[in-house]
């Protein structure tokens, strides 16, 4: 094809895209159809890659040894109980009711286990599909929530679709949707909380400006906004995240800081004269009361089973010597719950048990040590292996490498872009990134893992969507730049999708030749 022919082809394609866009934007019915068809198809696609073969392997994988059995005993007793030695093998074989009645010391709040237990109650505790179905449902729903968050932040259904698609096909997101751990559920509630924050901010600067402009002169103080239902919803979602894992507390604190800062900037833009004090001392307490108490209520409600029963760990620790003085009025069950939380805190702060796949947080951006969650070699004819030389089954929580490293680079881009544009939307993405990553840097000696980054991944994907939108160029860009930018974005998305297809077997324990598995170990530290 000659250069002129190639240029004509690109011009025809761009003209077709412009005509299609005009048809969609000019027809309200097509707009409504497009508004729900795209996220629905993306969610269905995400569900397919998460639910197909969900019960494979029929084995207790990695830390499922804790969450599956604890969820089932909690579902039956109201609290997690101890299990006899060798319980994993018995559980996998179908003997699921051998739990004891003595409370077990569990170091995470109950909400995630409640959902896992519900899935087991619906589909059978003896079914590996049953103990993973709740996590798969939350992982699938995260794609839908992320689409709507991206839609608000990017102002485009196209780029929202790109963000949701990238999350749907990433290996870390897929694996943490197919293994009964808490982190996928935690991520859902974190993304949901940030969606509610974005909804709270939508239209708020304009509403505040209208109220301020109603005065004859710039007022010393602005109005205190109490009617913020989306902020209350954000508090509830952050409380649910905390009720899954305590790292949700960092999210709650980051949201509170973001709300105060953006309130201050909105008041300055509206003309409020004492805008810093107004945001911190007047609007700040009102925002706090709408955000934090509901989070506390949701968190405490997750402990209902432990509070309503007598057998849970630490349930009667302080009954013999209850608190006195100013704490004497606190009911004994809550005093015992506080004692339990003190024990949990000591565990988390002091956790430094060596593990072959531990990875300190400074390594995470470089993808140095992903977590191998399952690996097995089967001879021909064993476990469905049809290869003459035998099969290898693996589950590695490594993300799509190209997507991950591009996302890390996009975070750096977004920092610069947010400063130059003074973008509150970009700042929200950076707030989510900081809340889910920076706290882990404070614990360099603690035993932590790369797969914790599932909570960071949605924000990396959002940052990547911002960067790709800039590469593709906007209406103000010249035609040549737009064509080149769009071509780069399309090639990137195609390569990322092909890489996910290449990695999918080792994310989902599909039987593959040993040498095929070896092809995925690009770095020595990935084995």
Summarize the SSE layout with pairings:
Blueprint: H1 3-26, H2 28-51, H3 64-77, H4 87-92, H5 111-123, H6 128-154, H7 157-169, H8 171-175, H9 183-201, H10 204-213, H11 229-244, H12 248-270, H13 275-301, H14 304-308, H15 332-350, E1 372-378, E2 391-396, H16 401-421, H17 424-437, H18 457-472, H19 479-507, H20 514-518
Antiparallel strand pairs: 1-2
SS content category: mainly alpha
* Series of H and E elements: HHHHHHHHHHHHHHHEEHHHHH
Report, as a whole number of angstroms, the end-to-end distance.
45 Å
Low-confidence stretches: 1-13
Mean pLDDT: 89
Count every helix, treating DSSP H or I runs of 4 or more residues as helices.
20
What is the general shape?
globular
Structure characteristics:
single chain; mainly alpha; two-stranded antiparallel ribbon; 20 helices
Structural write-up:
This protein has 527 residues and is mainly α. The protein has two domains: 16-181 and 354-526, no CATH class; 307-350, no CATH class. It has helices spanning 3-26, 28-51, 64-77, 87-92, 111-123, 128-154, 157-169, 171-175, 183-201, 204-213, 229-244, 248-270, 275-301, 304-308, 332-350, 401-421, 424-437, 457-472, 479-507, 514-518; strands at 372-378, 391-396. The longest helix has 29 residues, at 479-507.
């Amino acid at each position: 094809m000659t250069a002129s022919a190639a240029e004509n082809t690109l011009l025809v394609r761009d003209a077709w895209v412009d005509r299609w866009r005009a048809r969609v934007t000019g027809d309200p019915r097509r707009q409504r159809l497009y508004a729900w068809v795209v996220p629905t198809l993306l969610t269905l696609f995400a569900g397919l890659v998460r639910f197909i073969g969900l019960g494979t392997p029929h084995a207790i994988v990695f830390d499922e040894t804790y969450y599956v059995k604890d969820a089932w005993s909690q579902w039956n007793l109201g609290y997690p109980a101890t299990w006899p030695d060798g319980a994993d093998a018995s559980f996998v074989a179908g003997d699921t009711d051998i739990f004891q009645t003595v409370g077990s010391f569990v170091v995470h709040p109950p909400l995630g286990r409640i959902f896992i237990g519900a899935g087991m109650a619906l589909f059978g505790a003896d079914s590996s599909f049953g103990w993973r179905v709740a996590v798969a449902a939350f992982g699938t729903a995260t794609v839908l929530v992320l689409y709507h968050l991206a839609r608000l932040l990017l102002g485009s259904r196209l780029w929202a679709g790109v963000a949701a698609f990238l999350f749907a096909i990433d290996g870390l997101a897929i694996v943490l949707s197919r293994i009964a751990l808490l982190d996928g559920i935690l991520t859902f509630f974190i993304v949901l909380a940030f969606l509610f924050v974005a909804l709270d901010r939508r239209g708020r600067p304009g509403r505040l400006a209208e109220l301020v402009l109603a005065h004859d002169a710039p007022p010393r103080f602005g109005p205190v906004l109490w009617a913020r239902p989306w902020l209350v919803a954000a508090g509830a979602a952050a409380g649910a995240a905390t009720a899954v894992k305590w790292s949700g507390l960092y999210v709650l604190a980051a949201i509170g800081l973001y709300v105060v800062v953006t309130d201050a900037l909105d008041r300055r833009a509206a003309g409020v004269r004492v805008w810093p004090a107004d945001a911190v001392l007047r609007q700040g307490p009102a925002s706090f009361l709408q955000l934090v108490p509901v989070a506390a209520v949701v968190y405490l409600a997750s402990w209902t089973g432990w509070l309503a029963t007598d057998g849970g760990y630490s349930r009667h620790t302080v009954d013999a010597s209850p608190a006195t003085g100013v704490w004497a009025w606190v009911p004994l069950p809550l005093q015992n719950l506080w004692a339990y939380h003190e024990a949990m805190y000591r565990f988390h702060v002091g956790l430094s048990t060596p593990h072959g796949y531990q990875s300190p947080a400074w390594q995470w951006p470089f993808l140095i040590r992903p977590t191998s969650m399952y690996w097995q070699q089967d001879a021909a004819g064993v476990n469905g292996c049809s290869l003459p030389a035998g099969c290898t089954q693996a589950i590695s929580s490594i993300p799509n490498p190209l997507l991950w490293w591009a996302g890390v680079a996009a975070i750096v881009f977004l920092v610069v872009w947010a400063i130059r544009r003074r973008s509150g939307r970009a700042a929200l993405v950076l707030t989510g990134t900081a809340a889910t990553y920076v706290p882990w840097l404070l614990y360099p000696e603690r035993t932590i893992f790369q797969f914790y980054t599932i909570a960071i991944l949605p924000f990396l994907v959002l940052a990547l969507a911002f960067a790709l939108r800039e590469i593709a160029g906007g209406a103000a860009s010249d035609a040549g730049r737009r064509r080149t930018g769009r071509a780069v974005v399309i090639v990137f998305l195609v390569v990322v999708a092909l890489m996910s297809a290449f990695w999918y077997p080792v994310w989902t324990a599909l039987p593959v030749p040993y040498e095929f598995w070896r092809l995925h170990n690009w770095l020595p530290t990935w084995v």
